[in-house]
Amino acid sequence: MKEILYLAQQTASPPATGGAKAPTSSSPFGQWGFLIMIGVFILMYLLLILPQKREEKRKKAMLSALRKGDSVVTTSGILGTVASVKEDSVFLNIGDGTRVEFLRSSISQLRKPSSSADNKSK
């Protein structure tokens, strides 16, 4: 039993260093580590988060400006013309009198008339 108590006392107390300071661990980047970490976060914000916010704002404006007669592309790749607009959905004419209802959020982009279509009509 005495051996166990002796061993517990030896492991619990720190070893005597004789007045010498123990070496401290430091960051591999020294004092600049914190600034480098902040710089990385700023870079991530500028490269990842900011462009995504701009794209969301652009898409929201595009969806709120949808009007009858606009030519659009859905997220599934279906091309159509807006027949009517509701609060959360859009009816698209996708060809030969076929009319399909889509959620507004499924509209990915507006189509611009191509210059070749303009040349054919002239």
Describe what is shown at a glance.
By secondary structure, the protein is an alpha+beta fold.
Provide structural commentary.
With 122 residues, the chain is of the alpha+beta class. Helix content is 41%, strand content 23%. The chain has a five-stranded antiparallel β-sheet, with helices on one face. Strand 2 (79-85) and strand 3 (89-95) form a beta hairpin.
Identify the notable features of this structure and list them briefly:
41% helix, SH3 type barrels, alpha+beta, single chain, five-stranded antiparallel sheet
H/I helix tally: 3
- Report the helical percentage: 40-55%
**Order of SSEs:** HHEEEEEH
CA gyration radius, whole angstroms:
33 Å
The first-to-last residue Cα distance is 106 Å
Largest sheet: 5 strands, antiparallel
Query: How many beta strands in the DSSP annotation?
Result: 5
What best-fitting shape do the alpha-carbon axes yield? elongated
At the first level of CATH, the class of the domain at 67-112 is Mainly Beta
CATH architecture designation of the domain at 67-112: Roll
Spatial strand order of the main sheet:
4-3-2-1-5
